[in-house]
Amino acid sequence: MPTDPVCGMHVETDSPLRLVRDNRTYYFCASSCLESFAAPEAEIGRLKNRLLVGWPAALAVLLLTYLAPFPSWPYFALVLALPVQLYSAYPFYRGTWDSLRSRIANMDVLIATGTTVAYGYSAIALLVPGVFPPIYYFDAAALIVVLILTGSYLEHLTRENARGALRALQNALPSKATILREGAEIDIPVSEVSVGDTVVVRPGGRIPCDGRILEGSTSVDESMVTGESLPVTKERGSSLLAGTVNVEGRILLQAEKVGVDTVLSQIGSLLTEAESSKVPLQRLADRIASVFVPVVLFLALATAAFWLLFGHASFTVGLLVFVTVAITACPCAFGLATPAAVLVGTGLAARKGVLFKGHDSLERAATVDTLLTDKTGTLTSGKPVLTDLLPAPGTEGKELLRLSASVEAGSEHPLAAALLHRAKEDGVPVAVAQEIRATPGLGVRGRVDGRSVEIESGVAARKSGRSLGSLATGAERLEKDGKAWSLVAEDGVLVGLLGFSDVPLEGARQAMDALRADGISVAMVTGDNPAAAARVASALGITEVHASLSPEAKLDLLRKKQAEGKHVAFVGDGINDAPALMAADIGIAIGSGTDVAREAGGITLMRKDLGGVAFALRMARRTVARVRGNLLWALGYNSVLIPIAAGILVPFFGFGLYSFLPMLGAVAMGLSSTTVLLNSMSLRWTSLR
Questions:
Q1: φ and ψ at 566, to 5 degrees?
Q2: Tens of pLDDT along 317-354?
Q3: Of these residues, 4, 221, 286, 374, which one is catalytic?
Q4: Under CATH, which number does the domain 385-501 receive?
């Protein structure tokens, strides 16, 4: 049975109150909930207008009731309270009518019943003397309406604040896109952009679709989608995401994904889905909420009858007992307990580039106490970096780098990219090499400044038995550290060694420290050699290392941990990680990894930042804790206040309590659901610091 996404009440699927958004059907218990969901800002405006009418009238009635110096004040109170009942309270009456049509009792039934009884009783007592005692409750009827409307107004404001992440995503795409057609630039609606179109994006413009740069270079602000705070440099062939901002140059991009297929749209769908998602703990609350209103109405009638029959209460007091019980009860807090916390938690996570997928991913992530992580491409950049320059006696380090980078300048090999990057960083000029010949798996040679320069891989050098002379010790050290190495010779004479390794990602050590601080044990599982694994693990403070593992061995280790009672998360980015990502209690896929890894994970990091792993698990724990706190609050609120409303304190203080309990009940009811939302909003301060 679906639930109303606004108030959390159960709704039948045959309810006429429904709305289709983003290919998803939402069902509502009342027209006011539907309007609030469809146009929240307009609903907030309507509530404000009803309060502008209701509060002055209610305060005037209150003053007349307690400070009136003339005998005909009840007639003025009758007239002043009437617009409150007819206009301000109109949403409650319409909601009651919707409830009768759908045969699902909602909160409006309790409010409309209670206020109508109070106003109706007072009107009959005034206009038809002798039927009821001349005691009037126009003040109670009016105040109850405006107090509940005020609570609803504050709740709507809080909810809209909580939905900020989703609204920001929905507004991220431009309404128009400029495309090239037959050499001419034309503006079309974004919805009409097709795969394969060439799109023109000028500086300051938002990217309208996912695609790749065909022409130009720029930097792009991706903070909306990935959480990356600094602009990212983009060149020809670089991928771009819809909703990101082109900061600098004019670019042409080829559209690859449009509309609902873009990453931005998928993020929005995940957040929309999360808004109405439930953790298993919410199921009990759903069952309570589904029968809550009928039970409260029965309880209100039963307690009123009890005090009339056995407590010798007057009819007026019995009436107030009924009104107080009906007004004080609040099923909304049960319904809002999960979606409020989940919406805030997943919205904040999305802004930081962390996406939760599936209704139960939050709760599964909240139980994690053990993290298994791949090394290459997960803890490290996945690209080799030149870490060691070991020149032979008589050769300078910069000359060794210059000769090596010059020979590799035209190569696309990863080690060549590492050499050129280091040369650029160190300001070493690269010469134009000639007669370059590369032998796959062995090395490359060419002529630099008329001299023959040869680079040979360490593996090939070991196989050929090449003498390393004074550099032999250096080669052994590099191998012991798990680094790849190459030798460099000039005119057949050894001039140095180059050491390469895959270095830990920036911020990886801080992320591992944060995980350990949260009580999560971390183990590295990798197919790389033990020496390389140990070097990275040592740098990150990881003490449990499993190296040279096949994908099957990783899976076996994961299942062994689970058999020991551990709740295991697995972090990976490659195709070979997909089985472990699926088998883990929660899989965490690096967004820059393969599509298979991203699909297999229950959590996706939109950027290569290990801090996102620690943040995701911390956010999951805190979100589920807020859900539990919200449910306990709702249960405690009703467990304490409904008995008070029903008269448990009457033996101690008498029936005089009911001169103010109806108003206090209205205040408490409004505060109950608002407290749930404010408790959920506190998730906004979650961080790794």
A1: -80, 150
A2: 888 898 888 878 766 666 667 767 777 787 788 778 88
A3: 374
A4: 3.40.1110.10
Compute, in degrees rounded to 10, the torsion defined by CA atoms 641, 643, 645, 646.
170
Mean pLDDT of 166-180: 76
374 is catalytic: yes
The model's confidence at residue 171, banded by pLDDT at 50, 70 and 90, is: low
pLDDT digits (tens, 9 = 90+) for 31-60: 878 887 778 788 889 999 999 999 999 999
Residue ranges of the domains in the chain? 18-162+276-344+622-685, 174-267, 354-381+505-606, 385-501
pLDDT in tens, 428-463: 998 888 888 888 778 889 998 889 999 998 888 888
Q: Are 272 and 21 in contact (CB under 8 A)?
A: yes
CA-to-CA separations, 542 to 459, 465, 508, 590, 671, in angstroms, rounded: 29, 36, 11, 19, 47
Q: What is the CATH number of domain 354-381+505-606?
A: 3.40.50.1000
Domain covering 174-267: architecture: Distorted Sandwich (2.70)
* Residue 328: closest CA among 686, 671, 633, 681: 671
Q: pLDDT of 604-648, one tens digit each?
A: 888 788 888 999 999 999 988 988 888 888 888 888 888 999 999
- What's the rounded Cα separation, in Å, for the pair 212 and 230? 20
Q: What gap in Å lies between CA 660 and CA 95, rounded to an integer?
A: 26
CB 263 within 8 A of CB 225: yes
Tokens encoding 680: 């959920």
Q: With beta carbons less than 8 A apart as the criterion, state whether 256 and 209 touch.
A: yes
Entry pTM: 0.69
Helix, strand or coil, per DSSP, at residue 652? helix
What's the sign of the alpha-carbon dihedral 355, 361, 363, 369? negative
HSE-up (13 A, CA, CB side) for residue 525: 26
The one-letter amino acid at 5: P
